[in-house]
Amino acid sequence: MIVSEFERALLTRYPKADAEGWDHVGLSVGDPAAEITGVACALDATEANVRRAQEAGANVLLTHHPIYIKAPEAFCPADSARPQCSAALYEAARCGVSIISLHTNLDRSHEARVCLSKLLGAAPVSSLEHVDDPEATGLGALATLNDSCTLRDLATRAVTAFGSDPRVWGEADHPCRTVAILGGSLGDFGELAIAAGADVVVTGETGYHVAQDLALRGLPVILLGHDRSEEPFVDILMNSAVDAGVDPSHAIKILNPCQWWTVTKGENL
């Protein structure tokens, strides 16, 4: 299989038409005619992950987050004066590693909806974008917990499911049954969650005033961290690569350790 065939198979499954207009999905750098030796799957298209892919014998790096939304002015070796995507693109071209990304088109997929719901012990009902059309693709998930629980219990469940140290807004004993879930940034989807009758929203990140406003209006918020909320999508990328025809032994998963850390009050560093 060559890179262009692989990209075509992926975009058939996750159409560009499902991506946001501002997004950059598909092939960012690389030779479309190159024969694939291996595919490394990761959350982010960083310089370090380009090197990890090459070291693992993979000449394709398949990521969720695109290498850039807006292209940098130049592709150059790492330099603190330039965005990191400049160095990542330079390194990818230098090493002969093609980078393909599936971002908001994957976010809108049924696979993403099912993945996030199952991790919280819930059954997906619909997307948040199209609550009246369960079969339609769309951002986010509206899901029903298999067992009702309190906000505290759901946050504790998220710790294990996402490897996160979540921040929680809301009363600890608030009852939860219907969950709105959105990987990455919440944006204005809190309004859709309220309109859909959700008891709680679980997401990667949002601003202080948004979280405060939603909690005061009766919708608690669990913030997992942007990276933790979407790390499970790397497994979707792996499955998609194999389904597209990549030998499972040549599909490599690059783990992304939590990029945030916290300090407990009184802890000595």
Topology:
Layout: H1 3-13, E1 26-29, E2 39-42, H2 47-55, E3 60-63, H3 84-95, E4 98-101, H4 104-107, H5 110-119, E5 122-126, E6 141-150, H6 151-162, E7 167-169, E8 175-185, H7 189-195, E9 200-205, H8 208-216, E10 221-223, H9 226-230, H10 233-243, E11 251-253
Parallel strand pairs: 2-3, 2-11, 3-4, 8-9, 9-10
Antiparallel strand pairs: 1-4, 5-6, 6-8, 7-10
Helix pairs in contact: 2-3
Can you characterise this structure?
- The protein has 269 residues and is α/β, with parallel strands linked by helices.
- It has two domains: 3-103 and 230-253; 109-223.
- 33% of the residues lie in helices and 21% in strands.
- It is built from ten helices and eleven strands.
- It has helices at 3-13, 47-55, 84-95, 104-107, 110-119, 151-162, 189-195, 208-216, 226-230, 233-243; strands at 26-29, 39-42, 60-63, 98-101, 122-126, 141-150, 167-169, 175-185, 200-205, 221-223, 251-253.
- The strands form two sheets. It has a six-stranded mixed sheet with strand order 5-6-8-9-10-7, sandwiched between helices.
- Strand 8, helix 7 (189-195) and strand 9 (200-205) form a beta-alpha-beta unit.
- Helix 2 (47-55) runs parallel beside helix 3 (84-95).
- The protein is globular.
- The N and C termini lie far apart (50 Å).
- The model has no long low-confidence stretch (mean pLDDT 95).
